[in-house]
Amino acid sequence: MNEKIVLDKNSFMALASENRIKLLKKLDERRMTITELSRELKISKPAILKHLTKLIDAGLVKKNEGERKWVYYSLTLKGKHILHPERTKITLLLSTSLISMAGAIASLWKYFNEKIIYTADETVKTNVYGNTSKVSNEIISRNSDFLQFSIILWIVSISLIIIAIYIWRNRNKNNFIPKNKQKILEV
Which domain holds residue 75? Predict the structure, then answer.
C-alpha cells in the first residue's frame, strides 16, 4: 500500500531549479496549459516548455492531450508524493484508526450480546424473630475480556487520529525543500 518514491539523478536535477519548483506548486493546484503557466508565473513560454520537459523526464509531470487539441500538464503520482509526503502517512493512520474503531464496536457488540451467566446460591437468613428463610442471590457474570479489548482499541483509534491531526497541522515543517527555498513555495 505504501509506495516508495525513488529519487534518481533526473529527479534531483529537476528539483534543483526554483522555477521548476514553482511549476510543480502551480500544477499542484490544477492542470494547466503552457500559456496559463507562463501567464501565472511570468516566465516565457519557451522557458516553461524547457522546464516542463525536464519535469516530464524526471517523471514528476505528465502531458495530457485535452479536447480541441489543448495540451495540459499535471502532476504525476510521484510528483504529488514529493510535494505532499504527509498525505500517505495521514491516509495510513486514518485507515488504521477506522479498522480499530470497527474492532472496538465489534468487541462491544460481542460483550453486550453474550449470554449472561446466572448462578443461584441459596442461603439461609434468620430474621430478628428467629424465623429462617431461604434467599437466592443471583450473581451476574460476563466475560470482561471483550470490554477490555474494546477499550484498548478505542484508545488506539483515538491516538492514531490525534497523530494524524498533528502530522496534518505540521505538514509544512516536514517538507524536503531547504528553508531558503521555502519562500518560493509560499505563493
Answer: 9-84+174-185
Is the pLDDT confidence value at 68 over 70?
Answer: yes
Q: Which residues pair with 141 in a beta bridge?
A: 117
Number of domains in the chain: 2
Is 4 within a domain? no
* Residue 136 in domain: yes
Residue 187 scores a pLDDT above 50: no
- Contact by Cβ (8 Å): 6, 82: no
Assessment of whether the complete model's pTM goes beyond 0.70: no
Query: 96-112, pLDDT tens digit by residue?
Result: 888 989 988 888 888 88
**150 burial type by CB count under 10 A (0-12 exposed, 13-18 middle, 19+ buried):** buried
Query: DSSP string covering 101-112, please?
Result: HHHHHHHHHHHH
Q: For the residues of 60-98, what is the DSSP string, one character each?
A: SEEEEE-GGG-EEEEE-HHHHHHH-THHHHHHHHHHHHH
Q: Which helix (DSSP H) or strand (DSSP E) does residue 124 occupy?
A: strand 117-126
* 13's grid cell: 536535477
* Cα 78 from Cα 20, distance rounded (Å): 15
Q: Cell match 510535494: residue?
A: 83
